[in-house]
Amino acid sequence: MNMKLIRNLFCVISLFMFVSFYTFSSNEFTTTRSYMNIVQKGYSNVLTYFNRDTSSKEVQAKPKALAMVPMKSVFSQKTENLEVYPGGSCVGVKIQTKGVLVVGFSDVETNEGKAESPSRKAGIELGDVVLKINNEEIENSKDLIRKLNNMTTSNVTVTLNRNNQLVDKTINGIKAATDEKYKIGLWVRDSTAGVGTLTFYDAKTQKFGALGHPITDNDTNTILSIKDGSLVNTSIISVRKGQKGTPGELKGVFVEEDNPLGSIVNNTVCGIFGTADKTLGTRSSKPLKVGFRDEIKEGKAKIITTIDESGPQMYDIEIVKLLSQDKPGPKSMIIKVTDPKLLEKTGGIVQGMSGSPIIQNNKIVGAVTHVLINKPDVGYGIYIEWMLKDAGIIQ
What residues does the Peptidase S55 domain cover (predicted)? Predict the structure, then answer.
C-alpha cells in the first residue's frame, strides 16, 4: 500500500494495542509492530505497548523531580480483619472499548486537489470517543466503517464522549478522489490486549484487582472505557534486565484464551477490576489480611511477582517513602528493590510487574505500579485500599 493510499484512508483500525510484553505466536499479528514506552515525569508505567499501527509514536516528557502531594483528608471505610488472596501471577488482559476512540486524523484528497481532515475541521479532538453516528450506536471500528460507507449525503452527526460529557458534532464529509466515497478523515481504535499482574482476589465477592494503574491509549493517554473484557492465563517465556535509561521487560504469551479466568468490568486510575471464578484464589496458599494506610510503615517489605516458569515468588523490597494523596491514584509510595536474586535477574522493577502485591507484616498493603527510568531498582506503588474501593469491596 503506497503512502498516497494511506493518506486517503478515512479510518484506520488498530485491532490490538499490546499493554505489556506480549509475544505473538499467531500469523494474525504482523512483524512490523512498534515498541511503545510511555514516559511521564521520569517514570514509566510497568506496562509496555505493542501496536500493529506503524503510525503510532513514542510519547515522552522530560524527567522531573519527585514531589510530595500536599496533605488533605481522604478517608476510606476501614474493615477490620478484611482478607483477600494476594496475586503475583501474570494474567492476560483483553478488552473491547465502549464506542471507538479517536487517536488521529488523516487528510482526504478531493478531485480538486485539496486535502484536509473533515473531522478535525468539525472540532473532533484526540481522545474523544465516538458513540453514535446519525443517532445509531457504534459497536466497533468495523461498524463505523460500514455506517460511513452507507452514507448518501456529505453531512454526518456524531455523538461523542468527551471528558465524560456527551457532545454532538456535525462533520461535512469529503468525497474522495480515489473511490468517490465520502470520507471523514478519522483514525480510531476499539480494542486492546496485553499482560499484567494480578493484585488480589476476594473469595467472598469473587472480585479481583490488577495492574494498580489504568490501561491508557498510547497516542492520546486517554483511559480506555471498557465495554467487554476478559482475564486469561499467561506464561512467562523470558526476561530482559532493566538498565539505567532503559526499563527491562518480561515477555510472555497468552494461553487458554478460550477459557477466561474472569470478566473485566472497570478500568480506573487505580487499575482494572472485575469478577472471576474461584480458581484465582487457589493461586495463593492462603488469604492475607489487608493493611490500610495507617498501618503501613517505611522500611522492609516484600513483593509477590512472577519472573519465570516457577510462578509467583516473594522478593525483598524497601518502602522508602509514604506519600500523601488528596485523592486515590497509582503513586502512593516510593519503593526500592533490595532482593539480590531479583536484582540479578531483572535489575529491579521491570515492565510486566504492574499489580505485583506489596506485603508488609504479613498484610497486603499495596501494589507495584511504576519504575523510575533512570533507577530501575526504584519505583512507585499504590495503597491497596484505593484498589479495594474501586473494586467495590470497601466504601
Answer: 165-395
CA distance 379 to 43: 8
Q: Which of 47, 158, 38 is nearest to 102 (CA)?
A: 158
Determine the 3-state secondary structure of 6 from DSSP.
Answer: helix
Residue 201 lies in a domain: yes
**Amino acid of residue 123:** G
Q: What is the CATH number of the domain that holds 342?
A: 2.40.10
For residue 370, list its beta bridge partners: 45, 380
Annotated catalytic residue, options 217, 339, 377, 390: 339
Backbone phi, psi, residue 119, to 5°: -65, -45
Find all residues with CB under 8 Å of 167, minimum gap 6, and list them. 128, 159, 160, 161
Q: Does residue 130 contact residue 100 with C-beta atoms inside 8 Å?
A: yes
* Side chain identity, residue 153: T
Does some domain include residue 336?
Answer: yes
Number of domains in the chain: 1
pLDDT digit string (tens) for 300-313? 999 999 999 889 99
In this predicted model, what pLDDT tens digit does every residue of 142-160 receive, in sequence order? 999 998 888 888 899 999 9
Look at residues 378, 363, 349, 380 and name the one whose alpha carbon lies nearest to residue 301.
Answer: 363
Q: Are strands 90-105 and 13-14 parallel, antiparallel or unpaired?
A: unpaired
| 36 within domain boundaries | no
> Of residues 213, 356, 377, 390, which has the active-site annotation?
213
Residue 105 included in any domain: no
Between CA 270 and CA 277, with CA 274 as vertex, the angle to 5 degrees is 140
C-alpha cell of residue 361: 507484616
Catalytic residue among 89, 230, 354, 356: 354
Domain that holds residue 221: 83-96+192-390
- Integer Cα distance of 80 and 65 in angstroms: 37
Catalytic residue list contains 370: no
Q: What is the pTM of this model?
A: 0.77
Q: What is the pLDDT of residues 358-384, one digit of tens each?
A: 999 999 999 999 999 999 999 999 999
Residue positions counted in the chain: 395
Examine the residue annotation and report whether 284 is marked as an active-site residue of this protein.
no
Q: How far apart are CA 70 and CA 201, in angstroms?
A: 32
Take residue 52 and report the three cell numbers written for it: 500493529
- Provide DSSP, 340-373: HHHHHHHSSS-BT-TTPEEEETTEEEEEEEEEET
Residue 339 known to be catalytic? yes
